[in-house]
Amino acid sequence: MPTSSIGGSRHSEKGEGEPVLFIGGDARAHLDAFSGQFRAISMADEPGDALTQLRRLLDDLAITSVSLVGHGSGAAVALSAAAAFPHRVRRVALVDAVPDRDPATPILCPVLVITSEVQRAAAEALASGLQRGRSAVAAPGATDALLGTFLAERLSSFDNRELRSAFGSFMTGVTIVTTAGVDGQPRGFTANSFTSVSLEPPLLMICIGKQAASMEVFRHARGFAVNILSEAQKEISVLFASKRADKFEAAKWRAGPFGNPLIEGSAAWFDCARYQVIDSGDHIILMGHVEAFSYSDANPLGYARGHYITLGLEQAAVNAASSASRTVVGAILENDNRLVLLPDPARPNGLVLPEVGRHGHSGSASQLHDLLAREGMDATLGFLFAVFENPGTREQCIYYRGEALLHARGRTVLADFDDIPWDRLPDEATCSMLRRYAAERKIGRFKVYSGDHLQGTVKAVD
Ligand SMILES: Cc1cc2nc3c(=O)[nH]c(=O)nc-3n(C[C@H](O)[C@H](O)[C@H](O)COP(=O)(O)O)c2cc1C
Fold it and tell me: Angle, nearest 10°, between helix axes 143-152 and 27-34?
């Protein structure tokens, strides 16, 4: 069996795929049995601290996440590795050995203890003390089959994108987390994982992904600042969520009392000393001790389900709906990338957006839903798009945007965004709103608009 030496770590390996590292046992047999399905690696048995050797081998092979299989005396090494560097160990199988473990250190990855009948009770006791432990008794010659099934198991039964969407249902604010860094180069990124933690002592925390370019700088920095963004700062949030190298050249900022960058115009800021850094899965948690802070009365920017939310706009909609003037509530809906329009009951050949309240009494969101249902549409009106006063009619207009499913084509007219029938629409206010919508959907970013009640014009609020 050829043994390679990389950066001082000796090992043998065979196969491709998810890495599985065997510690102890018959190296050649393991590699032959598992290299068809995995990148099977066997760590050479050398004098010295096995845990240090294991970590060095993973570093040398640039492996960030591995399944470990410990045979005999290698079982204790595999279990200790899961406790010592949990973010790198995906799962552990222990074969023909039931090692002792320190109950104070949690082991969170799945652990399978495979033994013969003789060690059944000990294996069951070890497995039951582990968060995700289980044991199995293998008949002679059946160990590899059990191992193969365990190594091929999906670690979570759900799709990570779905999990991300479910997490995204929790509405948050938006922050930019900054640090003066260790090299004098300021670094920063957009984060919504901010949480206040303690008043005495004053603590807060945020999470940063291990894939973030600035993660290592934050991990070692002596402190960081959290800037809570105001609703006028959507653009800077997008900037700091990017990988641009010149984030700080494009932003207005100053150094805070504790030295970390404070972004101009934020609704609040906290300049913090590093308190604790906790390794957690694919993120690290940065706990900060607040050294100085300030806040203004600017409306904070919100975020939910992958979209920005502007309190001011929501408030404008509430005000418009409760004002003395008549309220029109409508929707800019898309079906299969086309704009949904309806015949205008008041003008032959005229078209309107689905809307209620233009004639007669004020409209409401529930009436709009009723109209959509009558017209055979199922629509998600997730986001406000515009709130303004129509200067021609003095109506308060509230428009949502969303997707429509058409159950029946009915009276709906679907228009391509490049070919909107402008001359059939009711007024200039509708046309100018739709022109902005069409332009913004092209770049995939929607601003929100609220009306200037004095001028009757529509202006961007972000
Ligand atoms: C609204 C929003 C919230 C975000 N929250 C976080 C977060 O809490 N933690 C994180 O690591 N990344 C978060 N991101 C992604 C980072 O901002 C993004 O990965 C950024 O590129 C990291 O910068 P860097 O790679 O230059 O370090 C968020 C992005 C957006 C748009």
Answer: 50
Q: What is the pLDDT of residues 310-365, one digit of tens each?
A: 776 677 777 777 777 788 999 999 999 999 999 998 999 999 999 999 877 788 88
Bridge partners of 271, per DSSP, are 225, 292
Q: What is the pLDDT of residue 104?
A: 82
Task: State the Cα–Cα distance between residues 237 and 460, nearest whole angstrom.
Answer: 16
Instruction: Give tens-digit pLDDT for 188-198.
Output: 999 999 999 99
**pLDDT category of residue 457 using cuts at 50, 70 and 90:** very low
Distance 447 CA to ligand 1 centre (A): 20
The DSSP output letter for 318 is: H
Cβ–ligand 1 distance for 214 under 6 Å, the answer yes
Indicate which residue's Cα is closest to atom 7 of ligand 1. 191
Q: Which tokens hold the place of 119?
A: 């060690």
Residue-level pLDDT at 87:
84
Mind listing the domains of the chain with CATH numbers?
4-152 (3.40.50.1820), 169-304 (2.30.110.10), 307-460 (3.90.79.10)
Give distance in angstroms: CA of 226 to centre of ligand 1.
13
- pLDDT band for position 462 (50/70/90)? very low
Whether 48 contacts 78, CB under 8 Å: no
Q: Which of 189, 207, 285 to mutate to test the pocket of ligand 1 (most atoms within 8 A of CB)?
A: 189
Identity of residue 45: D
Distance (angstroms) between ligand 1 centre and the Cα of 178 equals: 12
Alpha carbon of 207 to ligand 1 centroid (Å):
9
According to DSSP, the β-strands at 261-263 and 111-115 are: unpaired
pTM: 0.56
Verify whether ligand 1 is closer than 6 Å to residue 208 (CB atom).
Answer: yes
b/e code 173-184 from CB counts within 10 Å (16+ = b): bbbbbbbbbeee
